Amino acid sequence: MTAGPARSDVLVDDVLVDDVLVDDAEVQHELLADVLFERALAGLPCWVHDATGRRTELPVRRWLGGASSSDLDRAVDAAMLRHCTGPTMDLGCGPGRLTAALAVRGVAALGVDSSALAVRMTVARGGLALQRDLYAPLPGHGRWAHVLLADGNIGIGGDPLRVLRRAAELLAPDGVVVVEVEATGPTLVQRLRLETENGFGDWFRWARVGLAGVGALAAAAGLELLEATVVHEQAVAVLGVRRDEERSSA
After folding, report:
1. Is the separation of the CB atoms in 153 and 91 below 8 Å?
2. What is the CATH number of the domain that holds 173?
3. What residues form DSSP beta bridges with 22?
4. 216: Cβ–Cβ under 8 A, 6 or more apart, which residues?
5. Is the separation of the CB atoms in 90 and 112 below 8 Å?
6. Is the pTM of this model over 0.90?
7. Residue 63 and residue 65: Cα distance in Å, rounded?
8. In a 3-state reduction of DSSP, which class is residue 56?
């Protein structure tokens, strides 16, 4: 006998989220992440906690962009967007500040995010977005001029090489991946979880990538580092398909 879907019982700050039937733990985890995300976007305290006990407030103003972000945030965004002059896929688009900014410029752009709330926010600000895992089938496979990995999204799942390989699959032969990384520091994998004052999510893996490690990761993914721009503590790296990879796939 096959068990039916379990009802989620997620308690976040005394709000019980129990009106969604979930088939597995992954869906329940995404539901909780959306609740925590929504709380953060409402201006309520929300942190990311690492396995060493360090707790850092989520950079919501950075994700939202616009007037809520800093001059430095906008400088990093400008350094990324100047490379996106053709059809662009924004992986892990969040609330869609970059996807929407490209749309305003007349550049075809599609945001992809696993969060339903993030997708709704992207659409509300004039961008196009799709709720989907980045490893699921995506439109325009092998035809995108640019793939954006902003806000450290190269570290999704704690496996930056896998993320870069996925981005490379989505690119047109002459396309580029535009990646935001840390200007200094090593590449390391962390266990993190989202927390509020009265609730917390599951632990998940995330990688922090420093600029010094990008070249080797790119090479392992069939890409090469074309250029990099440092903006204070962040860096924007532009990766193209290696010429030998292009010839072998021709």
Report:
1. yes
2. 3.40.50.150
3. 6
4. none
5. yes
6. no
7. 6
8. strand
How many domains does the chain contain in total? 1
Residue with tokens 């935001």: 180
Taking the C-alpha atoms of residue 4 and residue 21, their distance in angstroms, rounded to an integer, is: 9
- Phi first, then psi, for residue 5 (nearest 5°) are -65, 145
Q: What are phi and psi of 13, to 5 degrees?
A: 50, 50
Residue 2 located in a structural domain: no
Query: 48: closest CA among 34, 59, 64, 61?
Result: 59
SS3 state of residue 138:
coil
In a domain, 13, yes or no: yes
Tokens of 177: 């991946």
Instruction: Confirm whether 114 is domain-assigned.
Output: yes
The structure tokens listed for 41 are 């976007």
pLDDT digits (tens, 9 = 90+) for 151-197: 999 999 999 999 999 999 999 999 999 999 999 999 999 999 888 87
Cα-only R_g, the chain: 18
Q: What is the pLDDT of residues 110-127, one digit of tens each?
A: 999 988 888 999 999 999
CA diameter of the chain: 58
Query: Which domain covers residue 129, as residue numbers?
Result: 7-249
Contact indicator for 45, 197 with CB cutoff of 8 Å:
yes
Q: Report the percentage of the chain scoring pLDDT > 70.
A: 82
Q: Distance between CA atoms of 115 and 138, rounded to whole angstroms?
A: 16
Contacts of 197 (CB under 8 A, 6+ apart): 13, 45
